[in-house]
Amino acid sequence: MMVTVDAVTHERLVAEEVALNRMAGGLAAEIAHGEGEARAAAAAAKKQRQLRSAALRNKHRAAFLPMFKRAAQAIVRQEVKALRSILRRSRKRAVRADEEPPADDGALSLAMFDEEMAKFYEAFPDVIRRQFQPVVGAFAAVVQSVIYDDELGVDPPEDAADPDELAADFADDFADRHVGSAQGQLRAIVADSEEAGEDTEAAIDERLGQWEDGGDGAAVAWADKISGLESVRALASISKSSYAAAGISMLVWMAGGTSCALCDVLVGETTEIGGNFRDDGETVDPGGDSDAAPLKVRGEGGLPHAPLHSGCDCTISAE
User: Fold this and answer.
1) Number of domains composing the chain
2) Domain shared by 191 and 140, yes or no
3) What pTM was estimated for this model as a whole?
4) What is the DSSP letter of 278?
5) Which end of the chain has the smaller Cβ count within 10 Å, N or C?
């Protein structure tokens, strides 16, 4: 038998169906809105943890900066003293090489200086490690505590590197970079002064004076540059290792207290923890509205973390 519905009943059923659809739609919207608010709240909380962690780690870096500086000063003082001694010995040996020093006496002296300099720097990494490793080890313990306890809220992972291991690796890396930079600077000065026909010994001594105390006051003493740059590098390197041990897969570039136009380009950028923010040869370009010139990243390792440049105080956080 066929069942029919009168017009009034049909209209009522249709109205009820529309009401139910509206109710379902409203409930879905409320759920979506709630989920959106929850996601936004989670993102805001995450951002606050990142900012708090970066600020706290940078605060600790500032507290350790005098210790980094004392270590750098000890390194540079010993370095300058030894190189000036080598310079004097090389000159005397060149003069004694013949009763009447040959016309190319300067070249002979410089060859001896380069040879003695190379011998000195072959052994100097041990000095660098002895000065830097204890400071970096103490700093690493503090940084790990901030990351695991405050930022991530986890116990230190079983495979997390010991602070002393992190310090040893960092000191080895710094020693290699420092020795390469020092010899590169001095050899460039020798080549440039010889080409210009200038007093090479005076040019070397001038650079040693700049390393020691800034020279005529126009430059920053090398120990100040080292402590600033390497404390930032140590912070970022230790942070990256700590995040990796905790299973973090992505990093975000965080501004320091005085980020510049170049660093502002990177702030908020992310990369995989094993990757780079910029690879070797790539450029950080602040754009045409900035007075800062684009900066090309140099080095086989690229830019895995801060610092981007001398004076940079940026860092990284877990993304």
Assistant:
1) 2
2) yes
3) 0.82
4) B
5) N
> Per-residue pLDDT tens for 91-137?
766 555 554 544 444 444 788 899 999 999 999 999 999 999 999 99
Residue with tokens 């010994």: 201
* Residue among 225, 281, 229, 276 at smallest CA distance from 253: 276
8 Å CB contact between 310 and 297: no
* 174-203 confidence digits (pLDDT tens): 999 999 999 999 999 999 998 998 889 999
Task: Check whether residue 108 and residue 185 sit in a common domain.
Answer: yes
Residues 91, 184 within the same domain? yes
Both 229 and 269 in one domain: the answer is no
At 297, which amino acid appears?
A: V
The answer to whether the CB of 297 falls within 8 A of the CB of 282 is yes
The two tokens of residue 269 are: 């950028």
Alpha-carbon distance of 267 to 252, in angstroms, equals 8
Whether residue 218 is found in the same domain as residue 255? no
Q: Which two tokens stand for residue 128?
A: 């660098």
Residue numbers of the domain that contains 211: 49-247
Q: How far apart are CA 198 and CA 203, in angstroms?
A: 8
Q: Is 212 within 8 Å of 81 (Cβ atoms)? A: no
My answer on whether 70 and 177 are in the same domain is: yes
Whether the CA torsion 169, 172, 178, 183 is positive or negative: it is negative
pLDDT at 25 over 70: no
